[in-house]
Design a protein that fits this description.
The complex is a heterotrimer.
Chain A: H1 9-24, H2 30-61, E1 78-87, E2 90-98, H3 100-123, H4 130-149, H5 153-171, H6 178-209, H7 214-223, H8 230-246, H9 255-258, H10 264-273, H11 278-285, H12 287-291, H13 294-315, H14 321-341, H15 345-372, H16 390-404, H17 410-424, H18 426-455, H19 471-486, H20 492-503, H21 514-541, H22 545-552, H23 554-561, H24 566-612, H25 619-640, H26 653-670
Antiparallel strand pairs in A: 1-2
Helix pairs in contact in A: 1-2, 1-4, 2-3, 2-4, 3-4, 3-10, 3-15, 3-19, 4-5, 5-6, 6-8, 8-11, 8-13, 10-15, 11-15, 13-14, 13-18, 14-15, 14-17, 14-18, 15-16, 15-17, 15-19, 15-20, 16-18, 16-19, 17-18, 17-21, 18-21, 22-23
Chain B: H1 2-5, E1 8-9, H2 10-30, H3 34-59, H4 62-93
Helix pairs in contact in B: 2-3, 3-4
Chain C: H1 2-22, H2 26-46, H3 50-75, H4 84-110, E1 116-117, H5 131-141, H6 144-165, H7 173-180
Helix pairs in contact in C: 1-2, 2-3
The chains are: A mainly alpha, B mainly alpha, C mainly alpha.
Chain lengths: 672, 106, 181
Amino acid sequence: MNESAHLWLIPLFPFLGFLLNGILGSRMPRRLVSAIGVLAPLISLVLVLSDFGATVISAASSCRGCGQVTALALPAVESLSYPWLAIGALRVDFTFVLDHLSAVMLVVITGVGFLIHVYSVGYMRDEPGYARYFSFLNLFLFFMTVLVLAGNFLLMFVGWEGVGLASYLLIGFYFQRDSAAKAGKKAFIVNRIGDFGFLIGIFLVLSTFGTLSFGDIAVRLALSPSWSGPVLTVICLCLLVGAAGKSAQLPLYIWLPDAMEGPTPVSALIHAATMVTAGVYMIARTHLLFDRAPIALWTVAIVGAATALFAATIGLVQNDIKRVLAYSTISQLGYMFLACGVAAYSAAIFHLVMHAFFKALLFLAAGSVIHAMGGEQDLRKMGGLRTKLPVTFWTMTAAVFAIAGFPPFAGFFSKDAILYAAFLDGTGGKLLWFVGLVTALLTSFYMFRLWYLTFMGEPRSQTDHHHSTPLSMLVPLVILAVLSVCGGWIGLDRFSAYLAPAAAAHRPMPTGNPALEFILSIAAILFALEGWLIADKYYRRKTERPAQLAVALPAGYKLLLNKYYVDEIYNTAIVKPLFAFSKFVLGGVDLLLAGIAWLLAGIASLTGMILQRWQSGNLRSYAAWLAAGAAAVLLFLLLAGSPHAWSLSFFHSETIFKVSHITVIQTGQAGH
Amino acid sequence: MNFLQHDVPLSWYLLLSAILFSLGVVGFLIKRNLITVFMSIELMLNAVNLSFVTFAYQWHEVRGQIFVFFVMMVAAAEAAVGLAIIIAVFRARSTLAVDRIDLMKL
Amino acid sequence: MHLILFFLFAGFCLAGAINLLLQTHPINSALSLIVVMTSLAVLYLLLGAEFLAIAQIIVYSGAVMVLFTFVVMLLNAGREERTLGSRAASRVGFPAVVVLFAVLATIVLHVQGLGAAHLGEGLSNAPGQSNLVLLSQVLFHELLLPFEVTSILILIAILGAVALAHVEGSKMGRSERTAEK
């Protein structure tokens, strides 16, 4: 079970792809660039699948240990350690750990990543900067795999920061566009705020546990099963800040809609399927800490539910196809956080996987639509595309049904599991369950709105230049559609059984009730259906109603359209004061430093001017100073030569002679 | 007669050496001609030689005198080189006044 | 006898030194210095350093001072003038030197354990161990290396002097013409 040699190969190939495409890419033909760019994730995928297969087999065969907690609560299947930091008592290694949780994540990352790479070959065919695109995409894969494989907080943070960097590079891919550059900066800075919280959390972990390795922390926690102090709550809250920044939860979600400035496959990969799920993964990975901090866990749940609802409301009226999908992503991430908040980590990861499938599909299909429309992204100008883009239409339909939560599509199973777990979690949980239900309705509504506006009805704009969609774009769509349909059929039970060694909650879980679950799922389906019907009414049958509503409720409409003016609030409350303060400090500090510099320079030049007079060039003054110096030396020798200066014993001729004798004798000795 | 048979205390020799040395320093500082300054230096050296010989006598140590011998040799060499320098300076500046030879001024 | 000789020649020394300071023409100062050197030679004799006395006369008075005299006459340096600089120097210099002398005198007079000099008594009274024999024994046995090194030093000094005083490719008369300007 310990062929630990090839864990490092998984991140290696994307890294090599990054280097090759980055350094030599501009000189290579496009085919070679695509080949390298696509081959790297493919090889990683193959490696991951072989490892995954091994873990599945081992899990199935040793299922008697499933769900039980042993002293080593995170059974690592393979691990690979190189020493890294050894400072005093701190020991941090380059530890890659593959266990069930990271195996699942890796399958998603490399699998969906590979499909998106293939899609990009077709989508980015006519774009300049082709090699740069693929090298950054591979760089992202490298860092994401490092993040997931990391066996300690520090290495995970390296991956964390790295994916943030890759995200910045890719959002600002069209850097000549001012909005794209600004969006990249915004993403990076907001992420940084989250990372600050994450770092504080890491420091606290280090000071509390003395180690950063997940395995060691698990061991330590297992040794004291009932310890749950305030320090753990603070740690978890700090980690939550980091997760909220990376996974675009309230209040740090503002970067994700702007991140749609990047190319659509980037949005699919990074801002739907993988990077934004890093926060969820991180909470699942450190769930042992969260299990012992109920307050923090509640905060996670509330943040998740609130974000889900909030983002869904904004998504109702957006007119850019990618913006709708962005807010949808934020909303679904809220669901995952909600799941983590009620300690249903397996459900959260399950939804993560399902979401990766259908959200990536949604984005890729949207990309196909945009590609066909020649770059047009406004929903109001689309329409009637179902006949013109049949493959895209059918695949996107599958995705829309999946995200709305209709059985037997993928989203139903995972969303249902989350809502069920929320409902079971006490009275507060029931409130959260209701919020989730309403959000499901809203989700269904805006997704079907998008569907109707894009594909149904009559074409609202004349686009005669239809590029036919290349095969490299269609095949991933189909594969993802199949997964969106069938992915959920694994079922939560098998999934959580598989994940149990890594992600089972360590706190008393409420007992389930299959009948209750059935009733709740019926309720969810009904709400989703209602959403569809409302969308149907407004966007198929009475298409003039939305405009009328907007006129009737202008304030509400404007509020939603402008995203509750959150960006503007942040700007005036935080950004502008910060700038003013910086200017002030700059002015003040500048003045201070200039003053100090002037003072020092003044002293130096003044001293120089005074001492310059000494260099008179006058031989006689030189002679005088020479004599004075000699006299001083003589005095020093006389005084220092004996501790009782000026006592009469000093004037014994012996001493005087010794001074002169020494020189004589030295020359004498030299002769020997 | 008794008075004339007295021996000379060695401290008087040392005192004489001190006086000569001081006079040499005075000349070194106040004289205006470069050669005269150099001569004052020679005077200082000689004063020190006298003191060495005195102490050699005191301790019956011939090495004191050998040191004087070496001093003489070095002083001779130094006089030669120094005077050559003075000649070179005179050729360049056409003056031997110490105050006029101030090319080292910044 | 010793006392008379001491006073006489010490007086010559002092007179010569003071004259060196008081004279304005360098040639007078040079001649005064010769007087000082020679008197010092006698004083060395009184202290039993015969070899040094002769060496003083031959080397210092006979060679070094003659060299000085040559240079003075070669460069034809005239009388000194009084300038601002020299006035300031004498105002600062004299007091400083008085202080210096005071310090030295205090030291000298407080030294204990100094004896007195006998006429005719040298460094050792052993027969066959005259001053010269003693000196050469030490010089050529223990201090041979410094002796040789000093001779090399003199060689270098000669070379240096020649190089410094050399006139680049001209007749000897040029330096005289320069001096007459």
